[in-house]
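Entry:
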Amino acid sequence: MQPEEKLPLHILSGFLGSGKTTLLKGWLAQQNLNEVALLVNEFGEVGIDHHLLNEVAPDIVLLPGGCLCCQIRGELKTALLDLYERRARGALPRFTQVILETTGLADPAPILSTLLHDRQLQYHFAQGTLVTLVDAEHCQLQAETQPEWIGQVSAADKLLISKRDRVSDRAFTALQRWLRQLNPLAELSDCTQALAEPARLFEPAVATGSHEQRFRWLGACGADTFSLNAAPLSAAHPVTQTCVITLQQSLNWAAFAIWLSMLLHSHGRAVLRMKGILRVGDSPSPVVIHGVQHTLHPPVHLRDWPGELTTSKLVFILRGLDADRLRQAFTRYMQAFEE
């Protein structure tokens, strides 16, 4: 890695008891540990106390093989900058990626906001992949009683189902269908599949990879606009709606940016996730945008369109905001700039 290159920061999320510890142990066992820094909140949660090799700082330890593990007791920004500074002066191995394991009750949105809105962090770190574990055995109760659960699932780039062996095939199929409704933008698999291909667990996000990898989420969003009641397992589950808007014409970027800013300012907590590929002005290549709640990631400019896709498409995962009203508001606003 060149000094000017940013370190990818990946996030591993999932509710209490979902299996993050087991997944991390299995994944680390297949890595070059000198290249991995692991950020956790409490060592007891991660269950790695018996693996500690030696203490190199009050809150930092090295695991066998050189993997760095940092216990976060203060703010995330302070921990990350301290980690980078120690790496830069040779006090720690020159790891090439950082894995942040969140607490089971954490909402990933503020974490993403910290990374994307702080200039110091932006200089050293790049957004990686957000992986959320879903407990097949207990997710129904968690969804009914814990508001953090829906935030973790909706924010994910990848959803991994754990404890597959504790539910029937029928229940597993229903769970997959429900998760695809809750977050059609995420890649869905289970932990066994993930550990069978460890190099893909924290696969780079939208800016890299093949067209198929970058835009697999489009396959789940064929209709122009549709709403999904995400409660096939129990009427008490939280309800989300997915709104898909397809545009044949080029988009007025300035007008769209204003509309999106107003939407997120007024209803950011209701926009659990959004993603889009846009034809902007006279540009022959598309722009990809995505965000979580109030946080909008920097736009990504692609060299060309994926496959046969040539039209703009916006996808919103909503909670407490009607999909039809959102679509109508977007249409009225954009038409005003065409007149």
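The first helix runs from residue 20 to 28.
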